[in-house]
């Protein structure tokens, strides 16, 4: 399916490189519908790994998976004014069912707060019913008018959305942070993508939230990417959907709520952050296939012995819990296979030729550094396990180093504009806290405040824009 | 969440009993949108088990999971005439995106043949690209106008749909049967629901298929339920979507295709087949929770000792691979908890009281027969494992016996009508093979031919309707 490798360098034309890697590795394809994409087997298998890891995390902390309808009546969306205003420009509307025009048009969910909370109002009666901690894996639709970017901006994408209800603000605050920390662990320790965590400003928060926390990182082209968000919705939705409970104090209270989500855009981040001129590079903990065994039959050699050994090696690795495939296709040469599996980002390649069989050894090649080593068969499992850990760590450290280099503190607005233009990345600057300055900067540079870091720093200058006294240090960037 | 148990008997008002069990066990709820439902945590957890089991089966045989768009352009649906005619009355149409009317309206997928095959035409070039064996888990929408029945008939439901392309008819035939056999194994050996397998008639086959194979069973009210279907699509779709490949003979050929699916309606079957007057009864192999541990603190007894023992038992079972919860809620009595977990269908209840702790034993109660036994702690794991197997077998055998009793061979049309009216179930009859007789019977009795069994039997009378020579023996029934 991938006759040709990637024919443009990451450093030369990043955008074209990205598209080629996604298409040629078999991660995804454009759908025959404007703005939509197809999640092919490789990206879907990565998504299944993410589901497995995140499900384990949230089930451990008492969350349950459910499935709510795809359709949201317009009247529900309208109930929370900010929420409606935030989402209505991007809604796809169903207006006809069978042959009959609908009395009320139905939104294809852009997010499910309203349909879920209309139901919570029915389910919640007493403090005994709290907390409710539900999550769903589904697709959502946002009718983007900007041009499509595979994984990063499409009209339909896959995500998970968590929706919880609590008796107190403190509990909701705690939930927001617990989930943010699980996201951070997923991003850093599985996807090997370091992130900064913090708060969104008032103008950047989720439509209808009290506050939004976020995970942000920088792509190789210097643009920021939001990797996930976790919101405290306060009582904004419980008041309009009338979600009340009788407390232990026997009085009526509105519940406090949170919602949080990550989407398939993190797969786009995986490609961008770790990929190279040969294609994808997958961190071992998220790679659906961790090692590929390739027999190298020479003309004179006994092919069946090599193949038998390759099968044996594959079995051994699989038994040790290492997800391994054997590529024994006859219609392709070893060289072609090397390229193909490099393109697909498999962390380790294990080559077995006639000499290897004779000497009881194999050759192992790393995808991240292309380093090769010859290993005695009896040390195979140990070596492979170590190498997988080393690769995982190496990818994270490289990305971490890049992220750190891409944070530039500036004190002067001219420098701000220059850094943004020439280098990109996060610009760390002091800010007076006014929405006006934030908006002016956005207008003039298209950079926005990506986050107010949790680890507060003292302002190191006056406000970068107005020059008045600064309130806090924030991170600006252009973003996807 | 379930303050009251089921207050109607299965034998007295089956339909009301079903609704009460589904709602009160917390399996599902009505959505605040006409015709839609909410898959609550219990039904979704069962669906996750089904996904896990079926994924393992199909991945073993080389199928891959993917995700194609929710939207299907009207022009795609129109390409295969029978297919369009079959689905168009039930399509929900998106006509507006954001503020803009769409140029071409988009169907919410009722099934994905057309969108997937439009893409296969792009992906398939040579015999080397075959077979393609893809599957997706998603929701589909069919704008039903009949009244809703939770799990069995809703406007949106969850399913998997497999879509394969092959070089020859023989390969496609083989795929159809391979999948049908996997379905049968899932239904019988996991869901404990015995099924009959066979072919659909021309008028009952899937819209656009060459032929349809089916799994059918009988519900306690005598109506048949289709549990899954596997279709050979022949070259009907490849011809209209132009899916061609260059064969090893270097000539151009159209591919042969299959599609197959099962849906969340099988959860409805689970409820109906195994449930009793106390609520759900889940077969152990599909039960998200296999055992519940309930501490029984007596007034005078040392509660903390009992609780500590209950925790220990729970740990032990969990470690042995038995999915177990400890119900240590203080706000409910043991009696209330017994009812609650019976309602939810958990196969085994393990009670621990002060006497049990003293004597190093526990009391185990079976959900299917309500039998109780006292077991020494050292034999706990073995006993629980055996009991789970016994329950699994018992549920299947009971259902199998019922299914066999509900097959009635008849030779005379008057008897046919009488059996249908008084007993229901499958009516085994000889049929001439004409569509006319099939339709007349449907008009007059609303019974349809559910299947032509694979194990062909010689006709044992003339055609049940026209009295002419019969061609084959078929199974009629009224159905959901």
What can you see in these coordinates?
Two copies of one chain form a homodimer. Helix content of chain A is about 35%, strand content about 25%. Chain A is of the alpha+beta class. The first copy, chain A, folds into three domains: about 15-275, BirA Bifunctional Protein, domain 2 (2-Layer Sandwich); about 290-385, Rossmann fold (3-Layer(aba) Sandwich); about 405-475, C-terminal domain of ProRS (Translation Initiation Factor IF3). Chain A has an eleven-stranded mixed beta sheet, sandwiched between helices. In chain A, strands 16-15-17-18-19 form a five-stranded mixed beta sheet, sandwiched between helices. In chain A, strand 5 (about 90-95) and strand 6 form a beta hairpin.
**What is the total tally of β strands of chain A?**
23
CATH topology of the largest domain in chain A: BirA Bifunctional Protein, domain 2
User: What best-fitting shape of chain A do the alpha-carbon axes yield?
Assistant: globular
Low-confidence segments of chain A, given as residue ranges, are none
The largest sheet of chain A, given as strand count, sense and whether it forms a barrel, is:
11 strands, mixed
Mean pLDDT of chain A equals 96
Domains of chain A, number: 3
* Percent of residues in beta strands of chain A: 25-35%
Q: Given the structure, what is the number of helices of chain A?
A: 14
Q: Given this structure, which CATH class of the largest domain in chain A is correct?
A: Alpha Beta
Euclidean distance between termini CA atoms of chain A:
29 Å
């Amino acid at each position: 399916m991938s006759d040709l490798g990637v024919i443009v360098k990451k450093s030369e034309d990043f955008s074209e490189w990205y598209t080629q890697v996604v298409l040629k590795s078999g991660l995804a394809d454009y759908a025959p519908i404007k703005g939509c994409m197809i999640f092919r087997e490789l990206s879907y298998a990565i998504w299944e790994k993410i589901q497995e890891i995140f499900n384990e995390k949230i089930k451990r902390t008492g969350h349950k998976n459910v499935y709510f309808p795809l359709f949201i009546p317009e009247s529900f969306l309208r109930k929370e004014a900010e929420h409606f205003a935030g989402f209505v420009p991007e809604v796809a509307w169903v207006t006809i069912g069978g042959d009959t025009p609908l009395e009320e048009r139905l939104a294809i969910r852009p997010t499910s707060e309203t349909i879920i909370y209309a139901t919570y109002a029915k389910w919640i009666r007493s403090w005994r019913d709290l907390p409710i901690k539900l999550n769903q894996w589904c697709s959502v639709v946002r009718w983007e008018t900007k041009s499509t970017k595979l994984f990063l901006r499409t009209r339909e994408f896959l995500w998970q959305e968590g929706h919880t209800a609590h008796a107190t603000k403190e509990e909701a605050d705690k939930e927001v942070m617990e989930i943010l920390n699980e996201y951070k662990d997923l991003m850093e320790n599985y996807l090997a993508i370091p992130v900064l965590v913090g708060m969104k400003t008032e103008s950047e928060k989720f439509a209808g939230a009290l506050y939004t926390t976020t995970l942000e990182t920088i792509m190789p082209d210097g643009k920021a990417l939001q990797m996930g968000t976790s919101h405290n919705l306060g009582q904004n939705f419980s008041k309009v959907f009338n979600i009340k409970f009788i407390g232990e104090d026997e009085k009526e209270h509105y519940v406090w709520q949170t919602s949080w989500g990550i989407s398939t855009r993190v797969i786009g981040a995986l490609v961008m952050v770790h990929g190279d001129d040969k294609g994808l590079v997958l961190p071992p903990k998220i790679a659906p296939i961790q090692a590929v065994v390739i027999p190298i039959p020479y003309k004179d050699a006994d092919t069946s012995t090599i193949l038998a050994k390759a099968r044996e090696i594959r079995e051994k690795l699989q038994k040790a819990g290492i997800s391994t495939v054997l590529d024994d296709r006859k219609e392709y040469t070893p060289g072609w296979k090397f390229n193909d599996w490099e393109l697909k980002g498999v962390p380790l390649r294990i080559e077995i030729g006639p000499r290897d069989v004779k000497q009881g050894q194999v050759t192992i090649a790393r995808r991240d550094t292309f380093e090769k080593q010859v290993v005695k068969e009896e040390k195979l499992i140990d070596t492979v396990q170590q190498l997988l850990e080393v690769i995982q760590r190496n990818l994270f450290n490289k990305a971490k180093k890049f992220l750190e280099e891409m944070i530039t503190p500036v004190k002067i607005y001219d420098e701000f504009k220059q850094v943004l233009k020439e280098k990109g990345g996060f610009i760390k600057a002091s800010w007076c806290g006014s929405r006006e300055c934030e908006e002016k900067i956005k207008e003039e540079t298209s950079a926005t405040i990506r986050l107010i870091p949790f680890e507060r720093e003292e302002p190191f200058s006056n406000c970068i824009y107005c020059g008045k006294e600064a309130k806090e240090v924030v991170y600006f960037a252009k973003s996807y």
